[in-house]
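In response to the reviewer comment on reproducibility (Comment 2.3), we provide here a single inverse folding case reported in full, input and output, so that an independent group could reproduce the run without further information from us. The structure tokens appear first.
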């Protein structure tokens, strides 16, 4: 492992940290490295252990509080509204920043987190990008901006934010190879597949355990419906990324998607049971939770009986039914409450959301609720209740706005599939015809997809019965 950077090393990199504690600086680096590599390093006690040592070394180190609070916020599993500890941590960070002589960069970091915590995600990104203009090798600003653009569905900004700083990340800078994978992901989400694959492959040639670059290539194969290469790649690389505990569940999710695409539901369920569910139940992270919900929901759309599996995941998700941090999370939590037939959690999620929407303030997500978040949630409820025409009426008008709830193209595809399944089950001839039109569109944009072919056959059968 590259030596962890002390006060002087950070200063030499042009990223001064306002502390005299070399240990605090090293633990800041340890935390940043684990965040970037998606891996809790056991030798450092994981991110939690590193943060604990950081705070012990210098309890008043403002950037130590920035990275701790930032990781809690960026995980999207807690908010200052509901989490007293996080709220207190943010207030302490703000107070420290006002009582100390900080660099302009550090002040901007504090300000960006303040924006994020109050739901002003686009403004937070503006501030991180401002930091990167003067400090292009500030990995914390780069990663926080990247993740938040992802939550916003700002794909072009997510790509360009990295493109602007990419030339500055020369091979001698710690973590530079990971920037290739981060850039590659933005390129892939904007359909620049060849460029994305080239950069991700370069990153993997430098470090084969770069789970984010593996993940980018998994996306490319998914977007091309290239099952043969997708399945081979995941199998060949599994040993390199399976210990990247913060992303391994998600990579297994991608692997299982290929099997759903192929129609091999048993293989998909085996990956779910052996990898996705245990990792999700162990970590409780929102990324793992949404993957878990999405996987079961997709299998159900395909007509697969998932048994008691929803009853396990609801134990995790119902704790987040009042969060309303991201609609993307909300709608996946709703999948689980509907799947588990947990009417109490479903009602709790919908009523608390409707209440918050009355006073959105400057919260970006709540501002999306009336025209996007609430109709999407209602569409899932109507589908569950067998009201397929109503599902289509709610979902079809917002299909091109769904990008705004964030997530990747692959993750949001579950809503395209939902719309097609709803339309296929409709009584209305117009909606049945819409299903056929949507399938022609899907086939034209992503040829050779076995899943699309199965749905086309289903549509033909519906048409033949008319």
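Designed residues, in position order:
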């Amino acid at each position: 492992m590259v030596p962890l950077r002390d006060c002087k090393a950070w200063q030499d990199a042009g990223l001064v940290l306002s502390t005299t504690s070399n240990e605090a600086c090293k633990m800041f680096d340890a935390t940043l490295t684990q965040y970037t590599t998606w891996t809790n390093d056991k030798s450092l006690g994981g991110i939690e252990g590193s943060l604990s040592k950081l705070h012990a070394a210098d309890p008043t180190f403002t950037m130590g509080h920035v990275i701790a609070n930032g990781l809690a916020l960026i995980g999207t599993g807690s908010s200052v509204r509901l989490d007293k500890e996080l709220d207190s941590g943010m207030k302490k960070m703000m107070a420290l920043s006002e009582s100390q002589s900080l660099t302009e960069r550090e002040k901007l970091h504090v300000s960006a987190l303040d924006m994020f915590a109050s739901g002003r995600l686009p403004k937070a990104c503006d501030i991180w990008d401002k930091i990167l203009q003067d400090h292009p090798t500030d990995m914390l600003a780069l990663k926080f901006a990247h993740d938040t653009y992802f939550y916003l569905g700002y794909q072009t900004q997510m790509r360009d934010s990295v493109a602007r700083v990419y030339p500055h990340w020369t091979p001698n800078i710690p973590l530079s190879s990971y920037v290739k994978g981060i850039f590659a992901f933005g390129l892939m989400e904007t359909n620049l597949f060849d460029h994305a694959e080239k950069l991700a492959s370069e990153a993997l040639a430098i470090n084969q355990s770069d789970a984010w670059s593996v993940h980018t290539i998994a996306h490319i194969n998914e977007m091309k419906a290239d099952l043969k290469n997708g399945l081979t790649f995941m199998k060949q690389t599994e040993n390199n990324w399976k210990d990247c505990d913060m992303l391994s569940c998600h990579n297994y999710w991608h692997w299982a998607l290929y099997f759903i695409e192929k129609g091999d539901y048993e293989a998909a369920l085996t990956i779910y049971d052996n990898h996705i569910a245990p990792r999700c139940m162990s970590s409780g992270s929102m990324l793992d939770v949404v993957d878990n919900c999405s996987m079961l929901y997709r299998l159900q759309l395909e007509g697969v009986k998932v048994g008691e599996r929803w009853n396990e995941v609801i134990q995790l998700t119902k704790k987040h039914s009042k969060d309303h941090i991201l609609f993307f999370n909300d709608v996946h939590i709703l999948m689980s409450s509907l799947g588990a037939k947990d009417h109490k959690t479903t009602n709790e999620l919908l009523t608390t959301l409707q209440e918050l929407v009355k006073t959105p303030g400057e919260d970006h997500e709540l501002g999306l609720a009336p025209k996007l978040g609430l109709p999407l949630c209602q569409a899932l409820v109507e589908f569950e209740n067998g009201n397929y025409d109503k599902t289509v009426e709610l979902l079809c008008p917002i299909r091109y706005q769904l990008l705004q709830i964030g997530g990747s193209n692959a993750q949001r595809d579950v809503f395209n599939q939902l719309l097609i399944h709803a339309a296929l089950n409709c009584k209305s001839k117009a909606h049945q015809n819409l299903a056929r039109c949507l399938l022609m569109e899907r086939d034209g944009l992503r040829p050779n997809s076995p899943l699309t072919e199965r749905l086309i056959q289903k549509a033909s059968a519906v048409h033949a019965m008319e």
